[in-house]
Amino acid sequence: MDLTFTPEEIAFRDEVRTFFREALPADIHKKMAEGHHVGKEDIVTWQRILNEKGWAVPHWPVEHGGTGWGPMKQYIFQEEMQRTPAPSPLQFGVFMVGPVIYTFGNDAQKAQFLPRIANIDDWWCQGFSEPGSGSDLASLRTSAKRNGDHFVVNGQKTWTTLAQYADWIFCLVRTNPEAEKKQQGISFVLIDMKTPGIDVRPIQTIDGGHEVNEVFFDDVRVPVENLVGEENRGWDYAKFLLGNERTNIARVGVSKQRLERIRALAAQVSENDRPLIEAPWFREKLAATEIELKALEMTQLRVVAADAKRGNKGQPDPASSILKIKGSQIQQATTDLLMDVVGPFALPFQEGEDDFSNEMPIAPVWAGPAAPTYFNWRKISIYGGSNEIQKNIIAKAILGL
Amino acid sequence: MDFDLNDEQRLLKESVERLTTDRYAFETRGKVMAAEPGWSAQMWGQYAELGLLALPFSSDHGGMDGGPVETMIVMEAFGKALTLEPFFTTVVLSGGFLRHGASDDQKAALIPQIADGSLKLAFAQTEKQSRYDLFDVAATARRDGDGFVIDGAKSVVLHGDSAGKFIVTARTGGERRYKGGIGVFIVDADASGVSRRGYRTQDGHRAAEVLFESVRVGADAVVGDPDDGFPLVERVVDEAIAALCAEAVGAMERMHELTVDYLKVRKQFGVPIGKFQVLQHAAADMFVALEQARSMTMLATMMCQDEDAAARRSALSAAKVQVGKSGKFVGETAIQLHGGVGMTMEFPVGHYFKRTTMIDATFGNAEHHLARIAGGASLIAA
User: Fold this and answer.
1) Domains of chain A in sequence order
2) Domain B122-227 has CATH 2.40.110.10
3) Is A231 tagged catalytic?
């Protein structure tokens, strides 16, 4: 056993950390550090800076622009990006559809899409969930009927994150309604969002934000060359994609950055005429969260180290369900701690306030995102396979129940 | 970064687990526990034969040069088997004082006797008022010629009833809660002025109340600096905490296995109860708690010899919090999922629960260590 990074890994961490600090534009860093939303432009700007450096898609195969780093370096890279904090790349491109295309797509698809994903020339969104298909994803009903050299797609997708910006959507569609098992009649298709018959409608979430959408398909004609892999094998590709999603879900670096900020802010506000950071109840709550996070970090490193030993080839470790469960709980705990820090200033709804406003301030600007983030981050234990689904996975795959 | 054992360590794990599986069945343990001295002299001999009693000591004194990982392996196996012998108090705890504080003469005299199984030791530290504060020492050691005279009462001295010698903390100077002025002494159990009352603990181990009345010891009884022994005490207790965490992880792992096995065989409403999702999720939650405790035990094991005392203490406290919380959750859930049979002495699961509960109450429970972390710097280093 040896729980230290090698000198090479430490040098790599320092190199990555220095680059992120120097290359991330100051305005984006400020938004990230203060917990505000970053917009499409910020994500695109940062992705192109990374692409320029050759670090846009480090986990991809080298022939498609990857770096050839092993799992430990990938982990360090992600953790440093989260701690900077810099915007995470758009998941749907680099972590979801990209790996599906280079693993199961044909050469024309690889040539057409992969470089544009790396440089975020195309904004991708994910068409999996439907109103009637959440955790039971394989029950999906959006249909694709073959008509000459096109599929004709009809149905509805929902919870489609940032579809309002999307150029493309990757969809699971039912191509064989007669299949014996519902998983067997599903295909994975790529659809241009400009195709006639597509309608995107916003869903407002409880924090007041607009992240997710409904996407309606009404006789949408999709060329057959946009089918990925084999017809009716889409469920396998989706499982592959969701497995990739879970390896990156603990977001230890995000929680570290948030706890550091919470500690700093708690020194600036007071309770009983003393800094909140000196209140024993607050210190214990903060310490308990830090201990949970430390344990999660060690568990994450165990999974990464095991991955590295296996040569990063195998299926994702079912133990990664632990990462999803604890990772989401701890991220949510950080939003709760920030609510403790802001106290009464959680109340005002601050719409687009900034430091340069001439209006009379209604609360410290830094308090603005606390409540919306607390509300918004309830999603983390729901998406990517809800925590209850993760417990089903543990019960079946690990405990054999 | 590597979380795996090397080949020699795997071999050690296999041989200890084979020994306990072959020789320490639950029924055997019950008989040992019910009889005097409350642990098995025969098993003690087996441990000596296997080299376990020499494990952490330097080969200069007949030891096996094992480190914290080797101790973790043995303690985890002992946790799975719920062994009763005074391995922790003799080899880990008292052995720690010898390794980190004793003179060459002391080591040469005592370590071979520990290794061959003839000498048991116990750490006489806790006092009625001290709770978990290692520096809260009312017992005194008054200078007398070139020796000392020790007076004081020590409580819950683990395996103090069968110890041939005690490692005793006593004050050579300063007020009761002063961190300086604490000395560490080796005292013969049959020295004039030592009396003790042995008893059983909740988890079937043994302990004693020990009284020291004008006990005279020579200069050769002092371990380390008689006026500044506290850093030594902290260091040894940190290693001991890492070892206890490993024992608790072994016990939690068994509780989890026993519970999952039970869910598969116990039928109600015509199906194994493990088919019920509410019980599956409880078992999954136990698994998460167990693995988080295992992760922190690995950290504690790697940090327990760190020279940076502040970083070491905070990592060990964090581990003790996680293991305490996980142990409580895994134990309480294990009993609940077993239902009525989990409440009986006849079933093993309750015995594991009692052991993890007592481990939490030893050298600082989860709340004590949480308060310590809360009082210090952030755990999240850059």
Assistant:
1) 7-89 (no CATH), 124-232 (2.40.110.10), 249-398 (1.20.140.10)
2) yes
3) no
